[in-house]
Amino acid sequence: MAPLKLYYAPPSPPSRAALLTVRNLNLDVETIKIDLMKKDQMSPEFTKINPQHTVPTIDDNGFALWESRAIAMYLASAKAPGNTLYPTDMKKRAVVDSRLFMDMDLQIAAGYIMYSIYALGSTTIPEDKKERVYKILGNLNNFMEGQQYVAGNNLTIADLAFLATISTLYEIGANVNKFKNIAAWYKRLESIPGFQENLEGAQYVGTFLKPKLNLKGTWDD
Question: Of 47, 96, 98, 156, which residue is 20 to 30 A from 104 by alpha carbon distance?
Answer without folding.
Answer: 47
